[in-house]
Write a structure and sequence with these properties.
Layout: E1 2-5, E2 40-43, H1 73-76, H2 79-100, H3 105-128, H4 136-161, H5 170-184, H6 187-196, H7 203-230, H8 240-266, H9 275-295, H10 299-321, H11 334-337, E3 357-358, E4 361-362, H12 367-370
Antiparallel strand pairs: 1-2, 3-4
Amino acid sequence: MALQFNTPPGWPAAPDGWYPDPNWRPDPSWPPAPEGWRFWTQTQTPPEPPAQPAPPRALAAAPEPVQRTHSRWWARLAWIPTLLFGVITYLIALQSMVATQNPILFPTLLFIGAITVPASVLMLVYGLGQRVGRDGALVVATAVVGGIIGVISAGQLESMFVPTGPGASPVATYLTVAVIEETVKMVVPVAIFLLLRRRSQGLGVVLGIAAGAGFAVLETMGYGFTVLLTTSGNLAVVDQTLMLRALLAPASHVAWTGIIAAALWRTADPRKQFRWPVLIGAFATAVALHTVWDATDSTVVQFVVALTSLAVLVVAVVTGLRSPHGAPTLQRSNAVIAPPIMPQPPAARPAPQAGPVSASGPQRVPHEVAS
């Protein structure tokens, strides 16, 4: 009987006869092993281990902390050229539309504004150390499906529950809208968290950013087209204040949903303290910032709200990178992954060999063999 490493679902396959180094750690981008997973199984035919095991590069990586930060400067600062490119392209499209009075450029302008800030925030989060790993398709699906579900659900619920009429309080109206939109944007991330159980650290904030970006893109484009239609295509009325909203609104929606999702994924780590109060506080913070955004028409105030929201998001990301003081870096002990000690049979010794017979009698057996 021999031991063979049983690879958990989602981990790269290990070759036959591979044994981990005592200091080996799983890559943090891999999904956690199922509860009670048996990492080692017995085989009938013992593998023939090489003199120096050569595991796959992903499994034989040097010990690293659970969340790695990128050491290359371009990975940390890639969000800056992304933001600059989007803003410059946005301003060029804006000037071209105003100068030519061509409404064909209007959808292009809204799309550039809606996608610039989410892309920049994703690059910023990546530079801070949060990686998507193999969940790239899941992030894209969250942006598309989450945006569609969020916009449709928000439209239905707001028509049912938002107070209207002469006696309606503006504060109650804005607060109700904020609660509804922040709730519906989390539908897809919550489904992934509860049903798919994809709870690897760092994935939550990325999915929250994706869901907020999808919602912001559709909402901003719909809002811009509504203003354009109500003014009978008068581009002079659609001034830079409305156009600036295409940059500020996605930044705010991305930050609000990212903050809530980061707090939700934080509850999956039992080492974290005050997990549920942090989640409640994150939702309340996002709703409060959203309410202030809707309650004002001042571009300066909206800019301050967007900047504050992004700052809170960055704090949530950086805080999530830290491991609790004195806590192990893995959710499971190394003894679970390390192969158990198996009793080894004593090595066979060569039998004494009779020496050549000489005239003086048989030759003596060497001391090393005889003993």
